[in-house]
Amino acid sequence: MNGTNWDEITDFLVVGSGAGIVGALRARALGRDVLVVEKADLFGGSTCMSGGVMWLPHNPLMRREGVADSVEAALEYFDTVVGEAGPASSRARRLAYVHSGSDMVGFLESEGLRFQRCEGYSDYYSGVRGCEGGSVRGRSIEAKIFDKKRLGPWQDRIRPGFSGGITIYTGEAAPMSLMRTRVGLTVVARVALRTALGRIRRQRLVANGAALTARLLDALLRRGVPVWMESALTDLVVEDGRVVGAVVRRGGRDIRVRTLDGVLLAAGGFARNKEMRQENAGGRRISDAWTSANPGDTGETIRIAMARGAAADMLDEAWWMPSWITPDGTPGMCLSERSKPAAIIVDAGGRRYFNEAVSYQEAGQQMYARERDSGGAIPSWLIVDSWHRGHYPFGMAPPGRTPKQWIADGWMKRSDSLEDLARQCGIDAGGLLKTVERFNRFAETGVDEDFHRGEGDHERFYGDVTHRPNACLGPVAKPPFYAVALYPGDIGTSGGLLSDEFARVLNTNGRPIDGLYATGNCTASVMGRKYLGAGASIAASAVFGYVAANHACRAPEPDGRARATN
What we know:
By secondary structure, this protein is of the alpha+beta class. The chain has helices at residues 22-29, 45-48, 60-64, 71-81, 91-110, 170-176, 182-200, 208-222, 274-279, 300-307, 360-373, 386-391, 404-408, 418-425, 429-445, 457-461, 536-552; strands at 8-15, 34-37, 53-55, 115-117, 140-143, 146-147, 205-206, 227-228, 231-239, 242-250, 253-265, 312-313, 318-325, 331-333, 343-346, 380-385, 412-415, 481-493, 496-497, 504-506, 512-518.
């Protein structure tokens, strides 16, 4: 497209408004003109709907609080959990992630963002057999609660978060689920007081992912970065093998934007694109109706880049999240419920087939593996007894209160006997009875001889630390019994464009496409096919946005790496 007539000229164009906009903020701080475009009418993407946590080894908050960690330990953890995972998780990309992540936190703090550690939110494979280098105290941080009134006219353009107006830190969610204990009640009281005071003061407090994206937007606005909403990328402009601009559809017309330093794609994955998901399902049963990703997660950006020669990988992978589907069709994430005592997950044969308390990513993978090998795992069934229902929340229902409508709608099954519960669910009753008998013996000894449930530090974090002898094991014994169907839902796809340690998009020959960068869920993850800790996906999006800006704007690398050129 030589001789293109340009409508706008900027140094650095960022497509998307999730955590990848760290790249926009960094480029502006380095003195570049920056433009952010977002196709939706709300700012924040899937980041805004998330917990907003970032998994960042050896970060400044850890160092200030004396939490032991090192680059070497983080890389050992990568190696023992992820292993060899192809170019998306190369040694160079892992090094860039660890070094630049720490550097990025310092930069964001200098821009006015405020964070706190998620104390005790253990790495997802910490304490798991065969995995080394994990942190029991956790490497995750989250943005502090933010009053979005500070955004002025932008305050109503932030995508709503998941907490429904409750100002709760993500690190408080697990202890809050123990609301019948002293620790749980303390957290409940703290969250309730914080939420009430915010309303009394007429603040518009947001937490979690909404707090992170609101703080990033606040920093962008203070830096004078223009943000175009309802502006969709429709094409990239390539001249002599270099991406020199983009075409953006805004206000009913195509605007050609010239970019002097580069284009950063940070527009998410394709969880909501039924066609793309089916194309990459590999014969698996999959549905875009099971995802909790934001409505704009539709993959056009990936296709645009691939049409311009970009390589892609792991398009069959996602950030899986075992989910129930409510009567209105909305997916609900199953997290702490399956990690607590007196709960099991079984297939149609009534058999357990994995450690129910593992990370959500691995849980979804286990569901698909079981379906492939034996069948009957989609759906699987989460079964709890009345002791569980009396002690722990289930979805949004507090302990001891099971909404009658759940039973009436048939969404939750209930029975005084396991045999009848199995009949209602279409589960083999004999298989279920044998499984429960065996599981209950494990609960008595505190040792899961089949799947080692409760051995990992993260498993215990979401379990019940007051329960002995195992925080995650308790007998399924007290009627009535309850069951809910579980599907391999997700919170976004995790495969996409291949990029290198400088966030440059690679072509199908493995060479960087000059002028084109990518981060977040539109890329194949640096985590490979694993999820290392809370906020691994959000952190990678932010870190490689930061890396991209440094490279495009020719800033020094934090670890002294020589800057690569084509």
